[in-house]
Each structure stands twice: as C-alpha cells, then as structure tokens.
Amino acid sequence: MAFNKKSEIKRVYFTFIDDELLDGFREICEQASLELAGENEREGAFGIAVIKGDKFSIERVKCTKCGATAKITYTQKAEFFRACSMLAAFIDSDEADIKQIPNDSMLCLMADMSRNAVYNIPSAKRMIRYLALMGFNSLMLYTEDTYELPGYPYFGHMRGRFTKQELKEIDDYAYMLGIEVIPCVQALAHLSTALRWPDFHGYKDTNDILLVGHEKTYNYIKAVLDLCSECFRSRRINLGMDEAFQLGRGQYLTKNGYRTSSEIMLEHLDRVINLCSEAGLAPMIWSDMFFRIEFNGQYRVAEGEISKEVIDLIPDSLTPIYWDYNSLSKEIFSHMIDCHLKFKTPVIFAGGAWKWSGFAPHNRRSLESTKMQLDVCESKGVKNIIVTAWGDNGGEASQFAPLPVLLYFAERVYCKNDDTEHLEVRSKECFNIGYEALLTLDAPNELPGAVEIVGRHPNPSRYLLYNDPLEGLFDRHLIPETVANGFKEAARRLEAYCDNENFGYIYQTLASLCRLLAVKADLSERMRTAYCAGDRQALTEIKNTIPEIIALLEDFINKFRTQWYLENKTFGLTNSELRLGGLKERLYSTKMRLESYLDGKIERIEELEQPSLPIKENSDRQYVNFQNWTATATVGVM
C-alpha cells in the first residue's frame, strides 16, 4: 500500500538498526524526503526500529506504526530501502502498517552502456538510488567493450570505458544499497567495435563474432572473467552470446570447413562454461541462439520446442534468459515460457523498457506488452525478472527516461498492484514527480495517427528529424494534415514539466525537439509539392523559414548536449554531434539551392523531381519505426 506523498522533509532517528544500513540510508534519505536526526536532535523526530526478519516469513516487507515510533521488518537490504521510500508518507498517514510480499528472486535493471551513452559516476549512483527506493536488488551494466581490460589497450578505446576503479566504486555503492551488480559482457557476438582494432587481429569469424576454437579467443574471455572476478562481488555473470547469426560463416568456415552453427555454438559454450567454473562464476546467457538453431533462425514460435538432445548438451550450471520486448501475442509468449521451463535451471525473463528508438522513450507502449508478460510469468511461477533499457543506434534517450516502466515492474513484483492511482503515488515517493508526468516523456512520438504497426513502436520524432530536407526519404511516413500541430501539442505537454528540479532538463530537451519538428518535420514534403506545382511564392516562404529551423536545431543541440553531459561520459556524444551538425549543413545547402533556383541561377532542383516513395511496404502515409540513421539520412554510400 502507498500513501499520498507529503512534500515536507520528515525527521527520523533509529532506536535500533544494523550499522551496515546506515550509510545507505544517508544516501537515499533526501530523495525519500527524510532527514536523519542526530543524537541530540531527536525531539519531535520519529523513532524507528529496523529488524531483519525471517526470509521464510510471508510478509517480507513490513512497516508497523505505534504513536511516534515505527518498526521496519525486512529480509533483504533492498527491501529496507524500498520501505524507506514509503516512510515519509506513512508517518503522516492514518494507517497502522504496510505489508508487502516480494518474489525473493532477481529484480534487475540491465542498462545499455555499449551504444555510446555510458553512465558517468554521478549518474550511475543516481540510478542506483532510484533502484534502491523501488526495491530492485540487482543491476547489470551491458558492456560489450566499454570497460578497461588489462592487456588489451585498444579494447574500448575512446568509447567511454569504465576503469577498474570505477567498476569497483559502482559495485561498492550498489552493495551499500542492497543491489548486486552482475557483470554483463559478450563472449561471442556483438563485438564489432572491439574486433575492428589491431588488438584483435585474427580473432574474427565475422565482423562482430569471435573465432571459435582459436586460443586467442579464450585468452580474451579468460581476461574478461578475471576482471569481473576482481571488480564485482557478484559470482554471477551474463555472457551474452545472443544474435550470433553468421556464426561459422566467415573465417571459421575458411579455416575449418562447414559445420552447423549448433555444433559450433555448443562447442564454444562448453569451453566458456569451463572457464567460468575455473573462475568461480555462475554463467547466464540470452537464450535465443538455442531456438534459432532449432527453428532455422527463428526465435519466437507458437509451437514446437528445443529437442531433448540439445537440452541435454546444455551445461547444468547455465541459466537461460528469455528476452522479449514487445510481444503482443499471449499464445506465443506462453508457449515460449513453457519451452524455457524445460531447461535445467530456472529461467530469467527479460522484458523491455523501450528507450532505444531515438531521443524519446516508449513507456506507454512498453507497458502494453509488459502487463501481459508479467501476468503469464506469475501464472507459471517465473520469478526472476530483468528490465532491459537498450540504447540502439546512438543511445540518444535520457538514461532516466524509462523510470515509469521500471516502477511498474517493481510494483508488480512487490505488491501485484498496477493501479493508476497507486503508481502515481509511488512515483512521487520514489522520484518526487507523478507517474503521468513521467509518461509524458513519450509525447514526441504520440502524434495523431501514430498507431502500433505489427508490434513495433512508431518513432517519427527520430526519423523525421534526420529526414534529409531535400531528398526526403521518409516523406511518405508522415500525415501532412496533422504532423505540425501534433508536434506543437507535444511541445506544449512537455513544457509543463520543464521546471522540475530533478527531470526538467529532459523535458526541456524533448520540448525543444518538438518545437523544431513542428516546423521541420514536413519541410521536404511541402517543398516538393510547391516545386512540382511551380509555386514560386510558396518556395520563397519555405526558404525564409529555414533560418528559423536552423535556430531551433541549434537550441535542440545545446539542450541535448547539456543532457548528455549531466548523465553520460563525454565519449559517444561525437556521434550525435556529427549527425546533427550534418543536418545543419544540409539545411544551409537547402536554403542555398532554393535561392539559386528562385534567382534563376539553376534551372532545376533534381532531388525534388524524384518521386516520393514509402520506405516500408504497406505503410504509406503511416508512421513507422525506423532506427538506422544512415539509411534515414541518405541512400548514398557512407
């Protein structure tokens, strides 16, 4: 149960508490609207006894109040800090107790640190505090090559890699707040940014897959395991090994001849599991490759399952992770969970907090699939949960944009409550801002007519930003009648929260983006229409708006840069600045071309004479989801 949050700080003192909780409490108390009274400052403060309870107790998190004192009972440190998030409101309430029954299993955020946006240390600690207040008990930082690896100086070079000292600092801070930091690496695929360097000459099967069977490969993996053993308290490790689509099709084929991907995968897995055993680490991997082996490259199926022969070859110590970020089919999802339950170890389900389609998140759309998925997991006894927050193609969205989805997962796990009013109150307790306010971060993609298409979340605020002002490759993926006003309305909604103390900078960035898109989104569409109609007056008016668009773009760049430096290491911003700076130059070029045409210096604007074609089939005049920046900006070779 949660109560209406009071804005004033509540002074508390502890009549009894385990010393190891005190340092953590001091870190989160301000965010929880609490203040710890000193020995001589207890008059008027609220007294609290903190008792570690029996882990077999039915009521795992319990706050009981009696007059001006209360007792908090917990079994895991994470539960204590969650109780603290409710304490300020509980003190003022008429209620006598809070009782909650968590899973006693993994509730984990997996944050993507490999798509340019890498937490700076203050940002990492800020996220850890939020996780503690929600009751998360684990964190994975997804690091393909963004960590320092002794003996490999090029590994993560200029990528914002974490130093060993930083990893230890993050681990120490999280441990203080009851959160296990589980290393999350790659031991097979998704390594293109590392494999391009001289350090890895001869390691490659294909551009992003390690060469199986090669001793250099296993020396590298051993170095990774040794580093993780040194930097993290956790004895668990996520080895990745997902989406190795071309396994055995590159240098491996040249050196060894043809073998099935399943043979190669299982041989490699057995070798890596042995290395984990030697290092005292319990491995987990994403499970998709087992299914792709069995079902000709397909992951999710409505019928059929992995053969017993394959399951028998999978080591007993390996934990599979079933990832599914946007499934809307209960039948398929249920079947896939059933398939995973036949593995030898308890399955982990990884859902998605969609922040990886551009600058704005898709929180509401994430919740649509999450509700069904957690319903199924609950019915089938799947208790280990990961919430992934990827950052595909640039890591552009704020690291904190998916907080409402993280909170939803936490409330389902702890009290099976997804009531709107409950979430609103809990959001204020954990973040000092309402749930609906946080969902407003979705506004840049919530345009009139932006509907779900085959389970994909339309992201017009990204592709219409990068859509070239002359070539207009995505002109058929907007709705001309409503696009400008849609972005104006989105900006208005976001501006209501721009002064928020903790998150205002994120709203400022997205409001600036929407103000820009209200003028720029249909620029090439309007230009082509006027040009083909021979309407020189309209072309003149369009030309005269371009300086305004450039000024709005510069404002967005400045706000986005501010957001980046608040949350992330500097490395990786290069990518976005090159893209946005390139867009600015194309706008200057567009203005110049229009002026030359209108002044009679050139006879034609060839780009505007080309037909406008839909990029995706069966989606003409529909908003779509499109991630690839290169293919959005140009069809030219880059």
Mean of pLDDT: 93
CATH level 1 class label of the largest domain? Alpha Beta
Number of extended strands: 16
Query: Percent of residues in beta strands?
Result: 5-15%
* Rg over CA atoms: 26 Å
What do you see in this structure?
By secondary structure, this protein is an alpha/beta fold. It has three domains: 10-100, N-acetyl-beta-d-glucosaminidase (Double Stranded RNA Binding Domain), CATH 3.30.160.230; 107-432, Glycosidases (TIM Barrel), CATH 3.20.20.80; 446-633, Up-down Bundle (Four Helix Bundle (Hemerythrin (Met), subunit A)), CATH 1.20.120.670. It is 45% helix and 12% strand. It has 23 helices and 16 strands. It has helices spanning 19-28, 77-92, 121-134, 164-176, 192-195, 215-231, 251-256, 261-279, 288-294, 308-313, 330-340, 363-379, 403-415, 420-431, 435-439, 460-466, 483-495, 504-520, 523-532, 536-567, 573-598, 606-609, 629-633; strands at residues 10-16, 34-36, 46-52, 61-66, 69-74, 97-100, 107-112, 138-142, 180-184, 204-206, 209-210, 236-238, 282-286, 319-323, 348-352, 384-389. Strands 9-8-7-16-15-14-13-12 form an eight-stranded parallel β-sheet. It has a six-stranded mixed β-sheet with strand order 2-1-3-5-4-6, covered by helices on one side. Helix 11 (330-340) packs across helix 12 (363-379) and helix 18 (504-520) packs antiparallel against helix 20 (536-567). The longest helix is centred in the last third of the chain and has 32 residues, at 536-567. The protein is globular and about 85 Å long. The N and C termini lie far apart (55 Å). The model is unreliable at 1-6 (pLDDT under 50).
